[in-house]
Each structure stands twice: as structure tokens, then as C-alpha cells.
Amino acid sequence: MITISGVCPLFFRVIGEYGALPDYDQKFHSSDTILLQLFSNRGEVPTATLNNETENTSSAISFSVYQVNEGVKMYYASLSGLDEATYTVRINNLNIESLPFSIYDSDDLLSNTVLIRYSHKDNNTRYDAIFWIDNVQQFFEFRMEGGFKPSGIAQKANAEQFRNQLQELTNVYAVPYKTFIFTGGDNVYGLPYWFAELLNRVLCLSDTEIGGTKYVRSDGSEPTIAPIMEGAQSFNITVTLEKKVNDAFGIGVLLPGSTDIFETTMYPESLWSADTDTDIGYVRSIKDGVPVNISVQVPSWCSYQIGSSSTEGIFPISITRLENTDTISRSGQIIITQEGSGEQIVWNVEQQGTAAPVFVFQTTQYPQSLWSADAGSDVGYVRSTKDGVAIDMSIQAPSWCTCQKSQISTPGVYSIGITRTANTDTSPRSGQIIITQEGSGEQIVWNVEQQGTAAPVFVFSINPTAETVIAAGKTVEVAVISTKDGNPQDYSVTPAETYDWVYYAPIPGGAVFPVQPNTSSQSRTATFTFTQNDSTRQPITFTITQNGAAAPVYYFSINP
Fold it and tell me: Which of 5, 225, 509, 537 would be a feasible disulfide site paired with 37, CB 3.0-4.6 Å?
């Protein structure tokens, strides 16, 4: 479930049962801050849009998150510095839209309005509202037509008197004070009734400023409405108030000893930008009705100046901060000490870090990851920017590659040409092209591989591998096939030993072995080895066996 703060300065739920809604333009100055707080108790994340009705544009509202308790989160955003235009805020989850409100830069156009700022001493209220976040007080603001008329100022006194026997009166004590009738609206246009409801809720809080002065309702006074004419849906709103600090004796004069005041009347901004700038806050410091000096301590990256006190004991404190050149935010405390009492007021402040540069470093097109063994070139593309501006890079490549970068027409995109040498080895080789962005140190790695040169295909065979020859001798022919990748490949023939009866002679397509006659009766063998040049093929052995000569056949006989 999502709810809207009960003291939201914008109006979402309004009724018009008794007539049409009044045509009213809620007004803010461009320097005003519109604090929007939404509460969720079921894990639902609210979303909202700010609609510029003048320009017919919309933008999402970015919320910060505050954990109220275990089951409830508060999502809050401050709308400030808006351009002059008419706006609405739409809560998408609730499907509701605020009534239109307008932003003005001109003080003259808002001269009949009064700024009402309101907060509370703690976060314990009956409304969905958070007034303190990390010890920093949150203020809501809205404007309404109205102010204080002289005729609405009444002189009052709270007195106790004693009448003696002669019926003569003596004041035991008497404290004068004043009441002020605040009038919202005017007799011509008036205000919608819901301003009375918001004003009544605001006056239930501990801190309500109207036109820069703190007020409280007088003796339980309640806002009353009076239509500007019969049947009208616009009203004049009146309520009786008193100043929170009694100045009935004169501006800034208090009853001696009655009240000591040491309080913040206006806080500086609690979250500062990284730039050098000056902010201001106000402290009221009074002792027995007399302004009391203050001392200030600030963080080392701040300086301060205390302005002159007003008659009401209000001291302006100007705080100048140095630029935060670090990307990390820094925080500190401004400690204001009241002289004499030693009481202290602490303002917690935080300065944002300088926005970290936005680096973009990415491959937009990869080169081929697997290359042939031949020499060649390839190209890849990398986008390298810092805050939208092209930024250089360095490149490391394997020893068998060279790289050349060049920025192309697309902003921040570089082409990286890669030239490789031929891989004469049969084994593949791999490596990394490492591209490093200047400034960020981020790296892009391209893994590349180059195939090895294909191993040659050798064919080597002889036929026959053995031959038996008769003793008479003959010429033996051996057919040889010897190729490399289909082309003839040289080979050699080597005898196992020196033979005087057989030798080798090459012929086209093979070899011949002339064998001499064997006159011995014993057989004999010769071995020759065929070896293919520059080849991984195994040598082939050729064996010739020659039979021995036949033994003579003797005939010997007698007859008779």
C-alpha cells in the first residue's frame, strides 16, 4: 500500500460534491522547495512523474529512500529550481494526479502570497510525515494568498491583580502579548477549502513559519472559512495566531529571566553540490531578552562569517565551502555554541563528490579469432570515450603481429588494423591483443589463433620388396612411387654392404638390379634400403636372394 504524506504541499484528493472545483492556480516561487513524501508498507516501490503542462513534457521523479521502521519505507524527493511553467505530479501506482501548480520567477507576481514553512520537533506525529533524516530537519513549504491585516492585531495581557480594602487595584504580575488574525485569500478570488485543512494540520506541528516568523495557534483557534459569495467554492480563511516568541514589549524584547532562547530559525542546505559555494543559516541566541554572541566551528573545508545580530537576536551564519575534487562525498558538522550557557546547535552537512568521469570502453566489432597460416590482415573496432569525448588507448600484441589504430568518423570509435606474418610451422600459435584505455586503465582482450602450415602428404612404396633369382642371374626391376603433395619426391638407395655380384641403377619410375651368375653352389642375399628424402616415412628394405649353382650330376657305371 502506498500513501501520500498528510502534510504534502500539493493537493491530490479533493472533492467537489457541492459544485465544480474552483479554477485556482496554486503558486510557488522558483526558489521554493516542494517536498514530496510517499510511504509504502508492502514492499511496493512508488514511481511518479513530473508533468510540464506548458511544454507538454514529462520526466520521472527520482526518489531517495528512508527506512521508517521494519515494515515501512518512505520515498522522498525535493522539487526545486523548476523552470517557469505549470506542472502536475502523477503518482503512477495510485493512478492519481495532483491539481496543477505554477512556478514563477517574478517576486511581483507573488507579492500577495506568503511562504509557509513547517516542520516538527521529531518524527512522532499523527501524519505520514518524516521531519528528521539523519539528524537533519526537513521542512515542507507552500504558498497561499494572504497575510496579517492591522485590524487583526489584538493587544492582550495575562495579569493577576490584588484589590485592597480600599478597593484599590495592584498588579501582582502582568505580561502583555498580542494575537494576530491570519487571513488567507482575498475578497475577490478566495482560496479552495482544502487550504484550510492543510493549514489546520500545519498548525498542529511544533515549527510553523509564516513569512519567516514562527507562529502558534492562539488558545486552540481553528481555521474558519467564509465563502466570498453565496454558493461559491472559494473561501476566505482566518485563524488567530500568536508569535512563538513574545515581542509585545517591542521587537526582540523579552521578559527578563522568563525565556532563554537558542535555536535554529532557518537551516542551511544539508546536502551541498561538489562546487565551491556559499550557504546561509540563521540562529536565534537570546539570554534574559538580550542577544548573546555565538561562536562557530566548521569542517576544514569550510569557512564561515557571522553577521550582525538583529534586535530579535537572530544571527546569520554564512558558510563557504571549497570545491570537493574527490569523487567521494564528505560530511561534517557545523557546531554553534552560545556564549555563557555553552549550549550547542549542530548542523550536519554533506558535500557531494565530483561526479566520477563516465568511461565507455567496448568492442563494437571483433576481428576474426581464427586466422589461416598465411600472412594477412584483419580489423576490429573499439569505442573509447570519457564523458562523451574520444580518449586514446594503448595496444599490446603478439610478436608475430603489428597493430595500427585510427579514429573513424563515428565519435570515439577506433579501427584497429592487425597485420600477421605467415606461420611456417605446422603447429598453430595463439596470443592476446590487449587494448588498455588511458585514464580508466580498463582493458579489452581479443584472443586470436593462427593455424599452422599444413603438413606435407608423402607417398612412398616399392614393388616388389623381395625377389629370388636363379643362379644364372637376371636383371630385377623394382617399381617405386615417391611423391610429396602429389609431386615427385627424390629418394635414395643404399646397399647394406658392398656387393660385387649385384648393383643398383635408377630408371624412370623405379630401379633395376642386374644380378650376375652365381657359380657357387651356395645361395647368396643382398639387401638395399630405399629412403625418401625430407620425409617422415619409414625407409623400405628390398631383398634379393640368388640361388646357388646346381651341383654337377655324375654318372658312373659298368656293364657288365
Answer: 5
